[in-house]
Known about the structure:
Two copies of one chain form a homodimer.
Chain A: E1 14-15, H1 18-23, E2 34-37, E3 41-47, E4 55-56, E5 60-64, H2 84-94, E6 98-104, E7 117-132, E8 138-146, H3 147-156, E9 166-170, H4 174-182, E10 194-196, E11 199-201, E12 203-206, E13 223-226, H5 228-235, E14 240-241, E15 247-248, H6 264-274
Parallel strand pairs in A: 3-6
Antiparallel strand pairs in A: 1-7, 2-3, 4-5, 5-8, 6-7, 7-8, 10-11, 12-13, 14-15
Amino acid sequence: MAIGEIVGVAPGTTFASRRELYDAGVHRQLQAGIVGSATTGAEPIVLSGGYVDDEDYGSEVIYTGHGGRNPLTGRQIADQTFIRQNQALVTSCLQGLPVRVVRGAEHRSSHSPATGYQYDGLYRVESYWHSVGRDGFSICRFRLVSENELATRGAESTPVRVATTVLRVVRDTALSKRVKHIHEFCCQVCGTRLECEGGWYAEAAHIRPLGSPHNGPDTLDNILCLCPNHHVLFDNGGFTIDDDLTLVGIEGRLVASHDHPISRENLSYHRSISGMGGSSRRE
Amino acid sequence: MAIGEIVGVAPGTTFASRRELYDAGVHRQLQAGIVGSATTGAEPIVLSGGYVDDEDYGSEVIYTGHGGRNPLTGRQIADQTFIRQNQALVTSCLQGLPVRVVRGAEHRSSHSPATGYQYDGLYRVESYWHSVGRDGFSICRFRLVSENELATRGAESTPVRVATTVLRVVRDTALSKRVKHIHEFCCQVCGTRLECEGGWYAEAAHIRPLGSPHNGPDTLDNILCLCPNHHVLFDNGGFTIDDDLTLVGIEGRLVASHDHPISRENLSYHRSISGMGGSSRRE
C-alpha cells in the first residue's frame, strides 16, 4: 500500500490506460475508482465519468462515493453508505492523509486529458457528508482540495496557528465571539468549558457549513458554541440536532439561550448532510 | 479599542516618537509595551529593548511578558504571571486575534529601525508558556509569528483542512499513527474516543513542543494520544503530568501502555513551561 506521492511520477504525468496506471503504482486496481481500506485510508481515486454527481472545479472536486449503481446502466439504484472504499476516504479525512487524484478522458471536464489518464497530484479530503443524487438516492459526498490550492488559501486566510500534528485556527469574528460570550465559553452540548491558563477556550461551529456546495450563512443563528470534541463530532457525522434541540446520535439536548436564536432551517440542512433524518427524497 | 490593522497605516510606516504612534492610533499608551485587556486581547505590542529575554527573528518573535522589573535598573526582581497585559496576549492566542507589532530603535535587533519606531504589521500569538529568565525569575513567554510568515509556512506544510472559524490539521506521521493505534484512539487523560461516522478521531500531542525554543524530539516517547479538548488544555497551561503519571491541574492519571514509553525528561520540561513545578531556579 502506498499513501502520498509515487517516486518518479510527477503531477501531470499521463498514462494511456488503466493498465499503465497500475504498472506505475499510481492506481493498483483496474476497475475500482477508489483504492484503499478503512485502516490505511484511500491511496488514489480516479475520476472517470462514472458518476453523474461528480463536480470538478480543478483544484476542488466534489466526489461521489462508491456503490449502489446498476453496472449496466450506470444509474444509481440504491443508497450509498460510508463503508468499504467510501470509508477509506473517511479515514483519509479524519487522519489528514493525502490522496492521489487521477483524471480520465471519459471524465469529460475541462480538467481532463484528451486521451487516457493523467495523474494530477495530491489532494486532501476536507469533509464528507450525505446528499441526494440526481437519481434520487442517498449518495456519499467528499470535498477534495488540491494541496496547491490549500497553500494558496492559507495565504489568503492567514489566521493560522501551527503545530506539527494538529493545527487549530480560531479567528474570532464579531459573531463567533458573541456566541461564545452568550454561553460563557460553555459547550452547548456538554457544558464543558476549557479552562486554560489565563483564559477560556471554545469554538464557533457553523450548523450549515460555509462555502460551496452548502453555502451556509455567517449569521448568529447558524453558529453554535462547542467544545473542540463536540465540534469534531458535529462536523463529521457524530451527531446532529432535531428541531426541538434534542441531540440525534448522542444523548442530550442542546443548551439554548434567549439571546441566541437557532435557525431550524439550518438544523434541518445539517440533519440531511449528516444522514440522520431531515430533508430527503422520502419526505 | 482597535484590534488588527489601522486604516491608512501600512506595514513599514515609521514614527519619530511614542507620541506619534499614539496619535496615529497604532499604540495608544505612551509607556506600556502591551496595550489591551483580558476581554479584548492585546492590540499592539512594542519591542523597545526593555526586556533582556526578548528574541527577535524578524517574522518570529519570542516576547517576554510584562511585570516584575525594577523600573530603575530594568532588571527582573520578581516572577511574572499571566495577568493584566500578559493575559491580554493569552486572550489573543486563545481567540486567534491579530496583534500589531511595533519595533523601536532601542530594541537594537537587525529588524529595528535606525531611529524612532516602525509598525511591522500583524502577528499571531502562536503559543505562551513559562520560562526562567536571565535574571533567574519566572517570566511569561509568547511566540509571535507574522501573518506573512504563516502564509509561507502554510505553503510548505500543506496538510491543511480548512473551516472558517476553526482549522484543524492532522497529518498522521507514522509515529502519531502508532500512538493512536496503541490506545485505540482513546484519550490518555479521559478515555474519550470520538466516534465520527465511518471512523474514530484522536490527536497526537507532543509533550515537549517541537520547534524553537523548545526543540522537542519527534519520538514515540514524546507523543500522547489525546482528545481535542485535552490537547487544547495540555498545550495551554490547563494541566501537566507528574513523573508517576498523576495529572497536575486536573484530577486523574495518564493511561499508560507497555507499548508506549513516556519520557520523564520531557514530562519535566512540560511541567516547567506550564509553570506547575518541575525544573525551576528553586530546585
